[in-house]
Design brief:
Blueprint (H helix, E strand, L loop, with lengths): L2 H25 L5 E5 L6 H17 L3 E5 L6 H8 L7 E6 H9 L11 E17 L7 H10 L5 E4 L5 H13 L4 E4 L3 H10 L4 E5 H9 L3 E7 L24 E9 L4 H14 L3 H9 L3 E2 L4 H22 L5
Parallel strand pairs: 1-2, 1-3, 5-6, 5-7
Antiparallel strand pairs: 3-9, 4-7, 4-8, 4-9, 4-10
Helix pairs in contact: 4-11, 6-11
Family: Belongs to the UPF0065 (bug) family.
Keywords: Signal
Protein name: Tripartite tricarboxylate transporter substrate binding protein
């Protein structure tokens, strides 16, 4: 081989190596992208997923399909996504349970840390502590005082065992050394019905679920578990403002992908979602349901998930919770 030909081949090798990645970037996605949502249609997680994917389709002209796989405390949908072909055409709407389920269930058939790679942190929905509209409790201090005056007599409802709002109640009990009885429901809707009716004393709920009832005057919000007040609830102070620090409990939403998904696909979706989250119409829609747009890099999403897992592992252990 003459030297000129050899030199040309050597110089061209890096460019040739880049061709598959360039081809993927140019052609991807060439078919509909599936987003697995581990909840039934119509809930807060499903609404956030549809809100984002609808805007992604408008922005990119690409098709996104929502695959609702509810049940099993989100483990059914999580496992299905973990077993999907890692070709960049299946993503999972990961959220709070992805960080806490490994500590609640001993027989999971997926590994939350090893089965997925982080893509992007979409939004946070802060937890709100609510009471019936007729309740004499108007502040977080009132709730703590009532619980200490009647240990084991007051109860709190949640949308189910192991959910973010259940764990919020357990964290509240641990931090304030109060004895509240947890009453799990099959979803937040029946719990809300009993709260409005006065059958339960209080409830921790996500802002996306509670906001319409608070605005309608059916229940009263006594505190927001977030770093700042919600735009649509400017009159409700945070727990920290009321002297109860370190009670920041977000029900978070983000995209993750099956382990082995091409980095180019992850980066493409990350960039497009970040662009969508800067759209004023999307920010307004998230605000309207009590959610806060986040965004960021895959690495930031991964760090957040690890921190969440560590935090809730301790709460689960200290509260002695086990679901199998």
């Amino acid at each position: 081989m003459n030297r000129r030909l050899a030199l040309g081949l050597a110089l061209g090798a890096p460019a040739l190596a880049m061709l598959p990645a360039m081809a993927l970037a140019q052609a991807y996605p060439s078919k509909p992208v599936t987003v697995t949502v581990p909840f039934a249609v119509g809930g807060g997680s499903d609404n956030v997923a549809r809100m984002v994917t609808t805007k992604l389709t408008e922005r990119t002209g690409k098709s996104f399909v929502i695959d609702n796989r509810g049940g099993g405390g989100t483990n059914i949908g999580n496992e299905a996504a973990s077993r999907a072909t890692p070709d960049g055409y299946t993503f999972l709407l990961g959220q709070f349970t992805l960080s806490v389920n490994p500590h609640l269930y001993s027989g999971l058939r997926y590994d939350a840390d090893k089965s997925f790679v982080p893509v992007v942190h979409i939004a946070d929905a802060p937890t709100v502590l609510i009471v019936p509209a007729s309740s004499p409790m108007k502040t977080v201090a009132d709730v703590v005082a009532a619980a200490k005056a009647r240990p084991g007599k007051l109860n709190f409802g949640s949308g189910g065992s192991g959910t973010s709002v259940h764990l919020a109640g357990e964290l509240f009990k641990l931090q304030n050394k109060v004895d509240l009885v947890h009453i799990p429901y099959k979803g937040s809707a029946p719990a809300m019905t009993d709260l409005i009716g006065g059958q339960i004393e209080m409830m921790f709920d996500t802002s996306t679920s509670a906001l319409p009832h608070i605005k309608g005057g059916k229940v009263r919000a006594v505190g927001v578990a977030a770093g700042q007040r919600l735009k649509d609830l400017p009159g409700v102070p945070t727990f920290a403002e009321q002297g109860f620090k370190d009670f920041d409990v977000p029900a978070w939403y983000g995209f993750v992908a099956p382990k082995g998904t091409p980095a180019e696909a992850v980066q493409w979706l990350n960039a497009e979602v970040n662009a969508v989250l800067k759209d004023p119409s999307v920010v307004a829609k998230l605000d309207a349901v009590g959610a806060v747009a986040v965004g960021g890099t895959p690495a930031q999403m991964g760090d957040f998930m690890k921190a969440q897992s560590g935090r809730w592992a301790k709460v689960v252990k200290d509260a002695g919770i086990k679901l199998d």
